[in-house]
Amino acid sequence: MAEYFENNTAPMQGYFEIVSEFISMMLKNASTDDVNDFLYETGKNLSERFPVRTRDSLSNLHLEVNSLLSYLGFGTADIEDISNGIRIVHRNIKTISNKKFADDWLKSFSVILCGLYNGWFRQTGAPVALFCKIEELHSPDEVVFILKKRS
Question: Which of 15, 47, 84, 103 has the most CB atoms lying inside 10 A of its own CB?
Answer without folding.
Answer: 47
